[in-house]
Q: What sequence folds into this?
């Protein structure tokens, strides 16, 4: 079942056309990422879905209804720029907003406690918001959007302006929200958060959805990868180079270009079996970045599903690091060996 159905939606501000025929569908229980540069109309589309703006033409249904005022309480919303009365404590602020969701008394207090715990702010619930960091304020914004236990969460630029620690916290929080069965529609211009969280992505460009794809088609080794090691033992570089002309060894760096799952697995296995300490593995060309750039340039994206090589049984396709990443056999082995090596090293006296 589709939670969001948008067909040929247009919206202009006076004589400036922003949405020029947007069509997209979002299935229940999924995370949809709307990508696009700043000013592409992502916020406008969210405001249309919320009923804040009326489309000039086109149709949309949210949670099965085209009467958007009838779905209040079933949709949670986190805007890009949150505004707070900072003299309130976090608990007071949620209590104030909760009353607009037809919650009161013990039911509201229970929901507030549950969401403060969910966003990791129970310990500071009675501190004034004026003392909160931007990342903490973003978590309070998500808590208020979840008070009514909505079926759909609309969130605009969830990590904008946050430092890396705050970004990680918000991404991990949204990853937990999806386990509730809540459908999430997320507008962003950061590819990392889309790669980590989304099931499907669309690129909004020139007022239309320029391209859409399932994220699983973009997960896997990039066009090339650089593996950095501590040192290669004698003969190892020659052995690796014998695997394929795509393998180049220069100093501490091993480049696989082009990279394939089978080749990456074979090189990693040889390094692990040879006791070589692997410092990093960095894709040089990310499929999601290629997909996005082709869309905004108006180029047709290649069908990676039909072009992808079928991996061998022992091939490794590392998922992107993140809250929901499960890792793979070789990389787990690599990490466990590295942890064991660090535990065996004597601690410094410094």
A:
């Amino acid at each position: 079942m589709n939670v969001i159905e948008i067909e040929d939606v247009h919206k202009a501000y006076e004589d400036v056309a922003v949405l020029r025929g947007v069509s997209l569908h979002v299935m229940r229980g999924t995370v949809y990422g709307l990508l696009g540069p700043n000013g592409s109309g992502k916020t406008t589309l969210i405001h249309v879905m919320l009923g804040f703006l009326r489309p000039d033409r086109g149709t949309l249904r949210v949670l099965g209804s085209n009467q958007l005022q009838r779905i209040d309480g079933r949709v949670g919303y986190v805007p890009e720029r949150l505004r707070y009365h900072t003299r309130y404590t976090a608990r007071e602020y949620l209590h104030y907003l909760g009353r607009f969701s037809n919650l009161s008394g013990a039911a509201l207090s229970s929901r507030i406690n549950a969401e403060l715990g969910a966003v990791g702010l129970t310990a500071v619930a009675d501190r004034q918001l004026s003392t909160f960091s931007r990342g903490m304020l973003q978590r309070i914004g998500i808590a208020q959007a979840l008070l009514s236990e909505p079926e759909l969460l609309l969130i605009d630029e969830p990590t904008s302006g946050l430092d890396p620690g705050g970004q990680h916290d918000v991404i991990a929080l949204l990853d937990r929200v999806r386990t509730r069965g809540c459908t999430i529609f997320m507008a962003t211009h950061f590819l990392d958060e889309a790669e980590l969280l989304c099931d499907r992505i669309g690129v909004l460009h020139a007022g239309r959805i320029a391209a859409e794809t399932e994220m699983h088609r973009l997960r896997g080794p990039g066009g090339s990868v650089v593996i950095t090691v501590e040192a290669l033992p004698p003969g190892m570089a020659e052995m690796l180079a014998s695997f394929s002309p795509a393998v180049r060894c220069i100093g501490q760096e091993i480049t696989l270009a082009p990279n394939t799952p089978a080749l990456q697995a074979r090189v990693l296995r040889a390094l692990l079996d040879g006791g070589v300490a692997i410092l990093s593995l960095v894709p040089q060309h990310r499929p999601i970045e290629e997909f996005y750039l082709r869309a905004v340039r108006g180029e047709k994206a290649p069908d990676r599903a039909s072009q992808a090589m079928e991996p061998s049984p022992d091939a490794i396709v590392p998922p992107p690091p993140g809250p929901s990443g499960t890792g793979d056999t070789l990389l787990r082995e690599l990490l466990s060996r590295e942890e064991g090596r660090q535990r065996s090293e004597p601690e410094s006296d410094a």
Observations:
- The first helix runs from residue 42 to 50.
- Confidence is low (pLDDT under 50) at residues 303-327.
